[in-house]
Amino acid sequence: MRLLRRIGLVLAAPVLAIVFSVAVTSLVLLAIKASPLDTFSTMLNYAAQPRTQVLIINSAVTYYFAAVAVAVGFRMNLFNIGVDGQYRLAAMLAASVGGAVALPAPLHVVLILVTAMLVGGLWAAVAAVLKVRRGVSEVISTIMLNFIATGIIAYLLAPGRLAVTTQGSNNLGTKPIPPSGQVPGISLIPGTQAQVYGLIVLAILVGVAYWFVLGRTRFGFDLRATGMSEAAAVASGVDVRRMVLSAMVISGAVAGLVGMPQLLGASYTYSLDFPAGLGFTGIGIALLGRNDPVGIAVGCLLWGFLDNSAQILNLENIPVEIVQITQGIIVLSVVVAYELVRRYRVVAEQRDVARALAATPKDEPALAGGAGS
Amino acid sequence: MSLTNDRAIDSEIVTTSPGAWRMRDWRSVLTAVGAGILLLSAVRVLTSADALTSAGTVGAALAATVPIAMAGLGGLWSERAGVVNIGLEGMMILGTFGAGWIGWQHGPWAGVGSAVVFGALGGLLHAVATVTFGVDHIVSGVAINILGLGVTRFLASILLEGTPGGGRTQSPPIPPVGSFSVPGFGALDTIEKKHWLLISDLAGIVRGLTTNLSYITILALLLVLLTYLVLWRTPFGLRLRSCGEDPYTAESLGVNVYRYKYVGVVVSGALAGFGGAFLAVVAANIYREGQTGGRGFIGLAAMIFGNWRPGGLLAGAGLFGYTDALQLRSAVAVHALLLIIAIALLAGAAWQLWRRRFVSAAVLAVIGAGLLTWYLRTDTLPGQVTFVAPYVTTLLVLAVASQRLRPPKADGQPYRRGEGR
Tens of pLDDT along A177-205? Predict the structure, then answer.
């Protein structure tokens, strides 16, 4: 019974949030005189097509890196708003490196991935050093660093610097990565030509590594301890400054991978129209998935579903932007729901304690679980 | 989530009472402004980059300053009440749309009113999430930025598609709002044309600040003054600020902390929306998607730069607005700006040397010399340098002076009524 309630409480918040945001979305749809049921069933039907499923998985792979990058920071109370700048700068420079060299296939890919992780990690390290040495909040510094990254990319992505003009278009991009540096797709879903990004394997590996390092190593324990109570962590001998530095750098290194599925699996060049803003998607998904590797994966699939299946709505004369509203409301309501569940749990535990104390004779130990969380 | 660590806050002994501002402070501000104008003037004569202090540049700088200052002022109201607001950008976006949508149909002032309402609604949402539900302020701010953009794009595609001259991403033109010139100052033009040292510069600056002022600009400047008066000179302001410094103590003295936080955050959204209205009505005369261009965040930066004070944030916004305007008007002047910064840094190095602070003197001298070499070896600066300037400046200010910055003490901390120590 207890276990059942615990599972219920864990799932309650995300389910509540999703139900709430579907309800609000329905109201918005009604307001523009569209039928919510028809809209949702159109989206679901579209998502049932094999081709759409591939698109959903591909979006989810990209989002997964972003969300894990954010989650690493979250686990120790660090707010890496800079994932956005970190991955764009990393993708840009990694694309340039990848386009400039010729290496045997596996090495070439590894070089690009390592470059991306290094750039992302170093860019995040700026914020980490400012926090550790000068006490600057990482929230503000990473917001500033995002804009600075935008400026640097705009400067470098010009003809004569790192960009080449593509024939017959006014798009600017880095030199295309030769086939030896590309990652072939996987035909995962039957019934369609479309392929899933090969880097889905890397995403799964990152998820497993995230779970293992945080849940099963001394480092992960220290990291979570620092996040839960800095004072307790210091008392148990954790060097908080070092933890901030390493958590931020790891977060940045994972962020560096965000652009990789797109770069190595589809576009092979970093151009002006390279997807931006994924860092903020990552924040939303990390919150929804509660920093849990599996929860994040589910959140990524949900986000991918919303983003891709909404495209069909254009044909129904419903603005695609409706899903952005849904997503924003999910993020906001999921954190509200977690807070409400937390309060409910505190009250419930206090009630249990009171009941247990009233029911047990004095000499027996009252209960195992502690009150308050 | 405070902006500086505890060590920084504890070591800081600053009283927030207005009495702390003595004549000495005013004198040093005036000295700094004077020295700045003299430096600008000297460099203008040296490089003949007349755009540095021309009335046109100053006017454009003022126009670029207003939206940044309004976002910053919004941040000030919210953070003085103890709520960190990084959702300013989203509220500002809502404001640009509100101004465009109502403005093209019912005139500019109705547009401004609607922008304020749109922004305030964004603020209200932030207040509900952070104050009532105790959600992390940063999380709520991020969500509001996503939501503000999404709602705006959704509404624009429904309400603006098919309008005359408008579409999914922009509104039809908004009728212009009037402008105002202080009579008599237009004649300063002739003095400005002479290009005399200092005198022509002053003429240019004064003319830029007194001619063709949009009524919305004047209103914005009055709002800065009003904010100072309300927050620092009234019991209401004292209570609001006490909620940002120490809400539990405020509660113990009978202040309804929730209500003050709500007021602070809703006003914050309204001001950000007003800044958005300026962008739509005055700067562009239409609503256009992506119009804010991160100004909500620059406003936040200006507020930090200004040490959570209205005068300081106006100075910060002015600095950022000036570089922004200069970039649009003259590449030569932007290049000359490099020389100005180099000279300022070298002067700072000399000052530090005189005070026998050899390390900081050396650091300043090296950076200054580097910039000087950069200036001498190039003819133009890439536009991106001015784009990143506000952000780099903010990072540097935070890195160098974070020990001297003093955010409200309970800024960003959750507060629940009756759960104090």
Answer: 999 999 999 998 888 889 999 999 999 99
**Who's near A226: CB < 8 A, 6+ residues apart?**
A76, A77, A233, A238, A240, A243, A244
Please list the ranges in chain B whose pLDDT falls under 50.
1-19
Interface of A with B (CB under 8 A): 28, 32, 79, 81, 130, 134-137, 139-141, 143-145, 147-148, 150-152, 154-155, 280, 283-284, 287, 319, 321-325, 327-329, 331-332, 335-336, 339-340
Burial of B183 (0-12, 13-18, 19+ CB in 10 A): exposed
- Domain membership of residue B36 (yes or no) is no
User: What's the CATH code of the domain at B142?
Assistant: 1.10.3470
**C-beta separation of B260 from B246 below 8 A:** no
Domain count of the fold of chain B = 1
Give the minimum alpha-carbon distance from A131 to chain B in angstroms, rounded to a whole number. 8
Test the A interface: residue of B133, B303, B304, B381 with most A CBs within 10 Å: B133
Q: Is residue B351 within a helix (H) or strand (E), and if so which, with residue range?
A: helix B331-354
Beta-strand pair A172-174/B179-180? unpaired
Residue of B147, B387, B395 with shortest CB distance to A144: B395
Q: Residue B12: its pLDDT value, please? A: 39
**Is the residue at B324 inside a domain?**
no
Burial tier of A180 (Cβ tally within 10 Å: 0-12, 13-18, 19+):
middle
Is B10 part of the contact surface with chain A (CB cutoff 8 Å)? no
Tell me the whole-structure pTM to 2 decimals. Answer: 0.89
Tokens 């030769």 locate to: A178
Query: A5: Cβ–Cβ under 8 A, 6 or more apart, which residues?
Result: none
The per-residue pLDDT for range B347-371, each reduced to its tens digit, is 989 988 998 888 888 988 999 999 9
- Kindly report, residue by residue over A232-291, the tens digit of the pLDDT: 999 989 999 999 999 999 999 999 999 999 999 999 999 988 999 999 999 999 999 989
The stretches of B355-415 forming alpha helices (DSSP H) are 358-377, 383-401
Q: Is residue B322 part of a domain?
A: no
Task: Provide the domain limits for residue B185.
Answer: 52-311
Band of the pLDDT at A369, cuts 50, 70, 90? very low
Average pLDDT over residues A348-361: 85
DSSP codes joined into one string, B262-300 = HHHHHHHHHHHHHHHHIIIIIIISS-BTT-STTHHHHHH
Quote the distance between the C-alpha of residue B89 and its chain's center: 12
pLDDT recorded at residue A168? 66
Three-class HEC string of chain A? CHHHHHHHHHHHHHHHHHHHHHHHHHHHHHHCCCCHHHHHHHHHHHHHCHHHHHHHHHHHHHHHHHHHHHHHHHCCCCCCCCHHHHHHHHHHHHHHHHHHCCCCHHHHHHHHHHHHHHHHHHHHHHHHHHHHHHCCCHHHHHHHHHHHHHHHHHHHCCECCCEEECCCCCCEEECCCCHHHCCCCECCCCCCCCCECCCHHHHHHHHHHHHHHHHHCHHHHHHHHHHHCHHHHHHCCCCHHHHHHHHHHHHHHHHHCCCHHHHHHHHCCCECCCCCCHHHHHHHHHHHCCCCHHHHHHHHHHHHHHHHHHHHHHHHCCCCCHHHHHHHHHHHHHHHHHHHHHHHHHHHHHHHHHHHHHHCCCCCCCCCCCCCC
What's the pLDDT score for residue B133? 92
N residues, chain B: 421
| Ranges A101-110, A221-230, A258-267, A363-372: which has the least confidence | A363-372
At A174, give phi and psi (nearest 5°): -75, 165
Does B191 fall in a domain? Answer: yes
Identity (one letter) of the amino acid at B135?
V
Question: Whole-number mean pLDDT of chain A?
Answer: 90
